[in-house]
């Protein structure tokens, strides 16, 4: 389903039945995405820092959203853009405090997983990793960013549809998951800071510090509360498009579907690394679900 919707969206044939301003808006989105993807590829290949898309992950959805508001202002598109901006500011701050940004734009901390992938047998070598960088890191990730933001395009396509109950519930859900993601990121940042200090006198996260990985706070309910919240934010965002179009299944579905698949793959790699470093992690995997907390927990 996600692949079919993705292919249909980028074929642009579906735009033939729409008015010129909407067609121009979609083409503007795709142009921005392609320019950014090419720049990310060139800069990352020159600097050998492959976190260029990571730096822009929290900036592009607000940019797409406000470009849409400028073209088709309505109560729904403004609310959506405001929520996406709150999401972007929060994520940018979290990325900044972990050293992701630098005064020199292309510098900053690189995601440790790119280094591990560079050294893997399947991708070792400048050419092979360069192809991976072009197709997956630079292009595919930019495509996903564009796609999970497309519900605001659906809202722009139906500007006359008034706000309703679905919009209110969607906004509440997004704000709720923004809060849980903030709490999870703060707990993780606090834990990592304490872990690096290694003073040995901390009472907070004492059990987690002994194990080497976080198992307390929200992390005792799911193994990746920040990942789960991020997915939930954009699944919720999809329902703005449902409210605008009146269709439960529409072309914007590919965004959250592909984002969930990306997080599944990312979490598999992250947990593989954790399992190799921490002997107790396999037990944690058995006891605690990955994304969705159990309603009735075993004692």
Fold blueprint:
Layout: H1 2-11, H2 20-47, H3 52-56, H4 60-71, H5 75-97, H6 112-118, H7 126-148, H8 151-157, H9 165-197, H10 206-211, H11 225-245, H12 254-277, H13 281-287
Helix pairs in contact: 1-12, 2-4, 2-7, 4-5, 5-9, 7-12, 8-11, 9-11, 11-12
Rg result: 20 Å
Low-confidence stretches: none
Structural class: mainly alpha
Number of domains: 1
Q: Which strand-content bin applies to the residues?
A: under 5%
Report on the biggest sheet: none
Textual characterization of the structure:
There is one protein chain. By secondary structure, this protein is mainly α. The chain has one domain. It contains 13 helices and no strands. The protein has helices at residues 2-11, 20-47, 52-56, 60-71, 75-97, 112-118, 126-148, 151-157, 165-197, 206-211, 225-245, 254-277, 281-287. Helix 1 crosses helix 12, helix 5 (75-97) runs parallel beside helix 9 and helix 7 crosses helix 12. It starts with a helix and ends in a 12-residue tail after the last helix. 33% of the residues are buried. The model has no long low-confidence stretch (mean pLDDT 91).
Short description:
This protein is mostly helical and 299 residues long.
What key phrases describe this protein's structure?
single chain, 299 residues, mainly alpha, 13 helices, 0% strand
